[in-house]
Amino acid sequence: MQLAEKYELMRKLARDFATTELTPEILDQVEDTGIFPKDIQKKMADTGFYGIKVPVKYGGQGSDHLAYAITIEEFARVSAVGSLYVNSPNSLGGMPILIAGTEEQKMKYLKPMVQGEIVIPFGLTEPGGGSDAGGVRSTAKKDGDYYILNGRKTFITMAPFADYSVIYANTDPAKGAKSMTAFIVDMKLPGVSLGKEEQKLGLVGCATSDIILEDVRVHKDDILGEIGSGFKDAMKVLDVGRIGVAAQSLGVAQACLDEAIKYSKERKQFGKYLCEHQAIAFMLADMATKVKAARELVYDAAVTKDTGGNSTLASSMAKYYASEICNEVAAKALQIHGGYGFVRGFKIERLYRDCRVFTIYEGTSQVQQMVISSQILGK
Ligand code: CAA
After folding, report:
1. Which of 106, 120, 214, 217 has its CA 20 to 30 A from that of 31?
2. CA of 126 to the centre of ligand 1 (A)
3. Residue range 5-114, CATH number
4. Tell me: the pLDDT tens digits for 75-108?
């Protein structure tokens, strides 16, 4: 896809920022400590990366989904966890408020969020319901001007340092998902607590934990959208979120390809460079073809969203394909590195671990197949 100059400028801005700030030394430090530097988070926000497509009146850049996808791709090419910090406010953090919030809520939450002052995760998944998002068991019982929330949200990215969280709960358990409603919950409210921080295979440096809600009193002004519109609004959020994960997958896949090409030109076996062996050259050809195909799908999903097309279908296709080929390309790139790919110190080892979750979070590949098939067959 031929891109207008403004997108190439956006790409350059993101690439320069990521390569300057997220150096191999910093990224090793993140792996060792599990902590992503606060000063880099602040610089990301100050440069405008947290509000790429948030309208200017709410403190964002007012740009579009294509600019967002390219930015995430470039960050992920350097660091998947770095891309997650940029992705979150643009995606599952900001979108629930942009889609369903009142003008007052947008002013109150989006501005500080894009400035990096507050963090708002997306509390949908529960211990008993990940893929079956409609199976949410958390409840919100009306009590005068308040709702009493009870339940547990699981695998919530950034929960350990969240200031607020969007929580999806059913106001009428008998109606299930038809009564699902989103609330903005202040994490300091009595009754809100966290589960233990998860030790993850990849994306080290971005904390994940459960959020536990025990008789939490939330005022009706903190309802996001309409009573009962929570499920559909969450699906609309994921339509955008999946473009973000697809772009992360694309960036990591490109990084794996870059590493494999570089290594194949440095390492000799049987008297010639790896890339001079046809077995390796053909693997690289296969990887490059799939990365290019993924890029077309990812940009197409972004443009479809920007131009009002069927973004549910396009973003699921992009997420499904890009995350699957990313894992395939990462496995092949690691194979080309041989034993060196299996040990710490080579970038490919981190990329291989980081991308494993891309076919899982924000809807598994099997969920994407459900969405795609129901879209093309007509439900
Ligand atoms: N936009 C608007 N409306 C939508 C929609 C969309 N994209 N998708 C579905 N709907 C509507 C349907 O039209 C339907 O409306 P009606 O009742 O009026 O007919 C209603 O929602 C119910 O739809 P379905 O019958 O298709 O719902 P379902 O129960 O069969 O589930 C699903 C469909 C696609 C499997 C959905 O449950 C799903 O996406 N599951 C995966 C959830 C997910 O991605 N979770 C990730 C959480 S976040 C995360 O991972 C990040 C992290 O921090 C770790």
Report:
1. 120
2. 14
3. 1.10.540.10
4. 999 999 999 999 999 999 999 999 999 999 999 9
Give the up-direction half-sphere exposure of residue 9: CA atoms within 13 A in the CB hemisphere: 4
Q: What is the pTM of this model?
A: 0.97
Q: Which CATH architecture has domain 232-376?
A: Up-down Bundle (1.20)
Nearest to 124 by CA among 323, 368, 361, 356: 361
Looking at the chain, which runs of residues are DSSP E strands? 122-123, 139-143, 146-157, 164-170, 180-186, 192-194, 208-219, 223-224, 268-269, 272-273
- Considering only CA atoms, which residue is closest to atom 27 of ligand 1? 134
The CATH class given to the 122-226 domain equals mainly beta
Which protein residues are within 6 Å of ligand 1, measured from CB? 92, 122, 124-125, 131-134, 155-157, 231-232, 235-236, 238-239, 312, 361-363, 367, 370-371
Q: Which atom of ligand 1 is nearest to the CA of 231?
A: 21
